[in-house]
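Revision sheet: structure tokens.
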Amino acid sequence: MMAEKYIRVGTTLYKIVHRPLISGDYVEDKVVWNYETLRQDYGRGNLPDIEKYDGFCIIPDHLNYTKVYGSYLNQYEPIPYLPQDGSCPQIIKFLMHIFGEQLELGLDYLQILYTRPTQILPILLLVSNERNTGKTTFLRLLKMIFGKNATFNSNEDFRSQFNADWANKLLVLVDELLLNKIEDTEKIKSLSTAGDYKIEAKGKDRREIEFFAKFVLCSNNERNPIIIPPEETRFWVRKIDPVIKDDTHLREKMRMEIPAFLQYLLQRKLTTHPESRMWFNPKSLVTPALRKIQKYNTNKVEVEMANYCFDIMEKLQTDRFCGCPKDFIEVIRAAGLKADLTQIRSILRDNWRLKSENNTEYVFYGIDHIGELVPQKKKGRYVVIRRELVARIAE
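Predicted:
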């Protein structure tokens, strides 16, 4: 039987307990205790030793984990496994299924998670309309590797003001994601690059912490699990295919390989270097699955404008096109859509982030009834539209 242990952090007493799991293992928890119960259990003159700390700190480190910093107790937990020599064919095979042609990027992502836990990383979103793809198994693998430093959230957890159960974790894992309100997306986007965050628990004052959580999301909705604007670069979206042959013992096989996989990550050389605040070059993370969500969240007027500009540049064999907001009115009407100058200005200014040039002459190209380009010399405060911009939006 394990000896009972008690600690005091600040003015709060905790009992260290070992909660049994279905697997037969145990996980250590800190349960708020009180001195009166302690006296009832041990007697007034026979109280056990109590370790005392001034407070909690949160310092993630998997390679040189430290439990105590000065008089502060580290709330970040050591991961359940230590690296050791061996092979991990089942894990590598499974990751090949998840990341496909981007396997090396996926391995870099996991290696950075393990060796540099405070590094900001993109929001990883796995999508598929089909069942039995392994999305949830991937979340479970991350949970097995990083233990209590990974937690499962529901969609509602992001909307709650109380966040103490996940705000100090390394990984926030969400299965069955559906956050199709703009405020939900903005919150996750903001958190993904936040350095500090206010943590709040029921009945306790809010306090600021250093925030380093990464988000791994899964959804059965390929078109609109979350709102991702065309210009957004913080998401890495992968479409996951169904598993060809299901292995009911895969999780346990991968669990046995985790020590060898950690050793593999330690010895492996990264294939990327930091090219953005989220480490990866955003262009390397662009996938058809990401474009599908971005196009779904793009309004029809914006798509028509992008298609028109892209077609003109294709015919002219150029990478730039000039126009004023009023030039697009007839373009939109010819497509059978309705829009006013305010909406068009908003698309050019807010969505496409374009600024007007000086009030000078430029050439706008129309298209006549037989599909021929018609150059129109004009004067005004035009914007320069680049092929790369509209190519991301055009259908």
